[in-house]
Amino acid sequence: MPHLKKIVVRDFRNIAFQEIGFSPNVNCISGNNGEGKTNLLDAIYYLSMTKSAFPAPDKYNFRYGTEGFTIGGTYAMENGLESRFSIQVKEGEKKMLRDDKPYSRLGEHIGVLPVVMVSPSDTALVSESGEERRRLSNAVLSQMDREYLSAVQGYTRLLQQRNKVLKEMGADLSLLDVLDERMAPLAATIYESRLRLARELQPVVAEYYRLISGGGESVAIEYKSDLAKSSLIEIFAAHRERDFLLRYTSSGVQRDDFVFTMDGHPIRRAGSQGQQKSFLVALKFAQYEIMKRSYGFAPMLLLDDVFDKLDLGRISNLISMVAGADFGQIFITDTDRDRLSGIIDRITEDRAYFLTEKGAFSRVE
Hints:
By secondary structure, the chain is α/β, with parallel strands linked by helices. The chain has 10 helices and 15 strands. The protein has a 6-stranded antiparallel β-sheet, covered by helices on one side. Helix 3 crosses helix 4, helix 4 crosses helix 5 and helix 5 (about 175-215) packs across helix 8 (about 275-295). The two termini are about 25 Å apart.
């Protein structure tokens, strides 16, 4: 399985320049809030996914006063060899390289360095719109399935063209017909992949939630899509008049959603803060498990402040899972160094500790 041996970060958020070597097993990063712990994890995520784990324009990742950033990493790959990856980002320009050779398309890199990130921002998966949950499904499926990634990219481009046509006065109906026909097979691929993902996630999420919470509540995932009842062409035909009035496409897989429930009720209303946190951690660990099955090896796991809002019993259950032999390289952040070392030192000697202060990282014993 790939593991990150060394990362070099320049001008990414509050990190001016850092070169850091890591343990192939567990890496613990502590420091006060706002010092840069999450920024380091996001730099690792960016190197895998060619974008931040947090939805925002790239310019917000530039260190203040700079016009871009660079992230590079040396990885031990699953074939036993080393590879160097780097991404250079400037306003309107992004270039990804492997062993100093540029990719022809950024999408070719997605899935090469599989990664799962768990962070406090995951609460948006419960509290915010379906866009957040679609983003999660895209992050999971695009790493495992290049056909899915290609379908999402193609559908998104055609959707933009369709919306542009709908905004025009005296729109060409024949052009809409052509766009609808081209979008239909892409939508079918997206729908089938998301439906399969929801079915795979359901039992795994339920089991992880039981392990974290100690049982009790029953959690479930339901996938909702316009394509559950009709083909995309039929859906677009039925809503064409409305689309012209609204001047955008009001139906299709871009409106899909995943409904999270607890004991049959929406978890955003039925679950306490701790229960929601436990569910979200279970969801991300289920993502990790499914990706591990698909790849045949464990992805990197980035755990950002996962101990927040979980009681000691749930923390103990979580760490017991993390300590299992099936997990790969892990990065954990926490504001409490003593709590972190007290937990990790009991389960492994193969770990590294880092202290964060104002975007600078130092290795400590």
